[in-house]
Amino acid sequence: MSRIDFASRVGVWWTSDQWSINDVIGRAREIEQLGYGSLFYGEAGGKETFTQAAALLSGTERLVVGTGIANIHARSAPASESGARTLTAQHPGRFVLGLGVSHAPLVERSYAGSYSRPLSTMREYLQTMDAVPAEVEPGAQRPTRLLAALGPKMIELSSTAADGAHPYLVTPEHTASTREQLGPDKWVVSEQAAALTTDRQEGLRRGHQHLHMYSQLPNYQNSWLRQGFDESDLVVGGSDRLAEGMVAMGDAETVAAQVTRHLDAGADHVVIQVLGEDPAADPLPALRELAPALGLG
């Protein structure tokens, strides 16, 4: 298994595009002090992912920083490989390169690209990365790669051409099936959204708000159908059943129990995405409350 020096088995997933990078670094330092082992974040037209990773890695001491995910349509394969090698050379064991094919509407609108053959596109992208000569960052480790893998074919590619998978918006049962397909020697880093509130209606509101965009994307719709949901769950914002299936709602112990289900199902590491009152809310108050229930500190 490739090297990732997680300080604990639980981390954080937080896309902070609406925050200044200096404020993000300050919060990353507290996330590290609380005992969380990582900070993963997305890339969908906000901050540039490698620049952000460099800032976060330099601004913390042992926190693992992961792209969740870097959009392969946003840069060439050699650029991804060489940039990731440089970060790995500077911060061994602390950078995880999560890669994904993104979604047709985003790729065609924001990158003027074609979304045909996503599996073949990813396979060819990884092969081109492998061909980058060793003279680029000589002596550096190859960056640890995880793929945003929801369906069985992309999960298989995560095993044969990468170091594991980064499942997003999945149940513990999906984590278990991913582990079974990947075997014991690949990384599984699962994301778990959480609404830290004992008010069910408020939890559902946050869940539907969170799912609003995702529920309109075919990749996630197909993933949820494979996970046992049905067409009635695929309304904009998701049904209540889908929201409760994707978002852990309740007190700190309830959220921690859902994280444990992913770990028991075979995840090596789980990243918690805190859903606040609005998407730009500061995640730290909830992360502070969750840390003792998660056994961190």
TrEMBL record:
Keywords: Oxidoreductase
Alphabetical list of InterPro entries matching this protein: F420-G6PD/mer, Lucif-like_OxRdatse_MSMEG_4141, Luciferase-like_dom, Luciferase-like_sf
Residue intervals of the Luciferase-like domain: 10-268
Pfam families: Bac_luciferase (PF00296)
Keyword Signal among record annotations: no
Source taxon at top rank: Bacteria
A GO molecular function held by the record: oxidoreductase activity, acting on paired donors, with incorporation or reduction of molecular oxygen
PANTHER family for the chain: 5,10-METHYLENETETRAHYDROMETHANOPTERIN REDUCTASE, PTHR43244
NCBIfam families: F420_MSMEG_4141
Name assigned to this protein: Probable F420-dependent oxidoreductase, MSMEG_4141 family
